[in-house]
Specification:
Largest sheet: 5 strands, parallel
Distance between the termini: 39 Å
Order of helices and strands: HEHEEHEHEHEHHHEE
Number of helices: 8
Number of domains: 1
CATH class: Alpha Beta
Shape: globular
Helix content: 25-40%
Strand order of the largest sheet: 2-1-3-4-5
CATH superfamily: Response regulator
Number of strands: 8
């Protein structure tokens, strides 16, 4: 996988395009549904993730397809043909979507609501950090820098470490705008799915959900292995900003160990 990833990164940097060899088996088609606004930055991130997933898929016999569903059409939609759903919805709509799409992963890309995490709704996976995660990250930073007026974020367009610079450049070139945290969440959700299918070899919704819930190890260009808590929240490093300027990362060294991702929020369900 490392050799494939390196080749993909090289090809992406060159803007190269590859076509699978003729006569090979038909690719496995993985269909994802997006539920949300067509103008959401999360959708731009999803499209970036799809491009990269399909570049990787040309080597692995996989093809990724996205179908967009307007939020108002979700109650009548048939989700049985989708491997997973990515959603830019607020909390009550997410709760309903998780019921409609029972048995498959639903990725929350924008709602930071703490109660959604505490409810531990089956299949609902939160890529965007919770409000509590952000508050705890900010509090850690202020323990070291008491006068700082900071804001914690999942991503920043100036992040350069752990190949973050390359991801930001690709996104900026494709969409002529910096990658914000919701765009990162959309990209990360697709990357999580495509990496998991590449490793586990199965696009079955139930098998995929089990893999995501119990065996995921995801980097996300943050330099640390991330996975989902029992609450469905993605454990992750957060970025600390002030006045829009990137200052550092949390967990904050000197307050918590850099890999102590649970220092930013509880891993427990409310019930």
């Amino acid at each position: 996988m490392k050799q494939i990833a390196a080749l993909i990164a090289f090809c992406a940097a060159l803007g190269a395009s590859f076509t699978p060899r003729a006569g090979g088996p038909d690719p496995v088609v993985v269909t994802l549904a997006y539920v949300g606004s067509a103008q959401a930055s999360a959708l731009f991130g999803i499209r970036q993730g799809l491009e990269e997933a399909n570049l990787q898929g040309q080597f692995l016999g996989q093809r990724y397809v996205l179908e967009v569903i307007e939020p108002g059409a979700a109650p009548a939609a048939d989700f049985s043909s989708y491997a997973a759903i990515v959603a830019a919805l607020e909390k009550e709509n997410l709760r309903m979507l998780a019921k409609f799409a029972r048995g498959r992963a639903v990725f929350n890309l924008i709602s930071e609501d703490d109660a959604l995490r505490a409810a531990c709704i089956p299949g609902l996976l939160h890529v965007i950090p919770s409000s509590t995660m952000k508050r705890n990250a900010e509090a850690q930073w202020r323990k070291v820098h008491p006068d700082a007026n900071v804001v914690a974020m999942a991503w920043h367009g100036d992040f350069v470490k752990f190949a973050g610079r390359d991801l930001n450049k690709r996104f900026q070139k494709a969409f002529n705008t910096p990658m914000d945290e919701r765009a990162w969440a959309g990209w990360a959700a697709v990357k999580i799915v495509s990496d998991s299918i590449a490793r586990g070899g199965a696009a079955d919704p139930g098998v995929l959900l089990e893999f995501l819930s119990s065996r995921l190890s995801f980097d996300g260009q943050k330099g640390v292995d991330m996975n989902f808590r029992p609450t469905g929240q993605l454990r992750q490093t957060l970025l600390i900003t002030e006045g829009g300027r990137l200052l550092g990362e949390a967990p904050v060294r000197g307050v918590a160990a850099p890999d102590d991702l649970d220092s930013l929020d509880t891993a427990a369900c409310s019930g």
